[in-house]
Amino acid sequence: MKKIALTIAATCSVAVALVLAQAGLAGQPVTQPLNPPPPSFETCKATGTQTICQGARTLPPYGPDDTGVACGSGSSAFDMFDSGVESQVAARYYDADGNLTRRVIHQTNDSALSNPLTGAAIPYLQKNTITDVVAIPGDFPDSATETITGEQNFTVPGMGPVMLNAGRIVTAPDGTVEFSAGPQGFMDYFSGDTSALDELCTALGA
Description:
By secondary structure, the chain is mainly beta. Helix content is 12%, strand content 49%. The protein has helices at 2-5, 14-22, 185-190, 198-203, and strands at 43-47, 50-58, 62-71, 78-94, 100-114, 121-134, 144-156, 160-171, 177-181. The relative contact order is 0.18.
């Protein structure tokens, strides 16, 4: 459900991120422990007063997962399901003491929403940039403020665009949404406006 509910519009190109990751890192091998340790797919180098870790990966396919979105009523009612493949280009920045200060993930999902009753599906491409700034170095995720930008468009032949998620969301360390901009259909739905996804449900056969 989180994959769908927090999706929004990208301001950074994943293509640029790929070039950055593939260019490699100049610097010296890391000799001190890093807190918290980076994931195994990232390679780390010490550069000046900080350590930078970068890497790219494609995760195993996910789904079909129930998004928690209920469409329609009566015998035709169904829950919306999500499935796809997620790719990431990621970077972590550590200070001179080896404590994490910032994390950036450029995320792409090649996915589809579906109606399990009829098999109807709407493919979509989701692109997000997720930036976590850690207020207390090393205290991740407990003191991290997260900013997500991105876009996720749903277009159906013969109907055109049926839903757009686009903009920016800033979330405090305690999970409170501090700022939100742009059309946020999924956030509106889970905040109580069930009509926000009516066109999407209709397109899936509700």
